[in-house]
Amino acid sequence: MEVFSKFDILIEVSYAAVTLDGSILATGSCDTTVMVWEVFRVKAPDKRVRNMPTEMPRKDYVISETPFHILCGHDDIITCLYVSVELNIVLSGSKDGTCVFHTLREGRYLRSLRHPAGVALSKLVASRHGRIVLYADDDLSLHLYSINGKHIATSESNGRLNCVELSSCGEFLVCAGDQGQIVVRSMNSLETVRRYNGVGKSITSLAVTPEECFLAGTKDGSLLVYSIENPQLRKTSLPRNLKSKDGVRRFERQLEQKEHIRKFMCTLLQVDESWALSSSSSIQNKKNITVAVFDLEKHGVIPRED
């Protein structure tokens, strides 16, 4: 992905993050800087959506021509970002092993955290309660900090993590990776609260629903839906269409060409939780992207229109 500034300077983007309300975009670059952009929502003419009987209003998102902040403080490529309007903060992680804090509104430097082993940061998440978790592939460790930079806890991940997400309530960390398990940890101590064993396949993408259910995409192209039966892990009732005895459902996208069943790159959930959108890459051609829509109520795949 590339971003052109107003002055036609080509910038190679290494990571991007958006605020929950979609109003701010933060991009990390290979030149070690973080740029913060304002995003405008512009109503576009109504457009008919495929397979929908009625026309739906569509809104386009326009990014400002120039960033309103260019943040510095790293010595290597930006690998992860978090930006929050509510907390007025921009967090950036880098291959140099540091996590740098800036204020969102003023762009003012606050502090830096360094990974205890000095290794490159792979992922970071932050909750609205002011808890921050750093993860590094090099030592497979999770580190929990307060927003003031105080170290709270450390835990081993026991395997490479491909996905690190927060629950909707912000009180739990949801991790998944090469071991094929989904592990739920407390954001107060990093202690394991619940473990889902999955189907023995590496999990490559993960989405957490507002009802605290998990959609996991696997390396072999399967979509897993986990329903949470433990009331400790969910704040609201679980939709009936996602309940199951074993707590997991498996959906497989059977395509005309077998070689297109490949690992999931991303998984998104529609607002009312009736369908999930996923994408995967082709085995023979990584540039060939397959997109599938899963109907969670009918437990199948919505046919595509070519």
From TrEMBL:
It comes from the Eukaryota. Residues 13-236 form the Neurobeachin beta-propeller domain. SMART domains: WD40. It comes from Ilex paraguariensis. PANTHER family: BEACH DOMAIN-CONTAINING PROTEIN, BEIGE/BEACH-RELATED. Pfam families: NBCH_WD40 (PF20426). InterPro entries: BEACH_Domain (IPR050865), NBCH_WD40 (IPR046851), WD40/YVTN_repeat-like_dom_sf (IPR015943), WD40_repeat_dom_sf (IPR036322), WD40_rpt (IPR001680). WD repeats lie at residues 21-39. This is Neurobeachin beta-propeller domain-containing protein. Keywords: WD repeat.
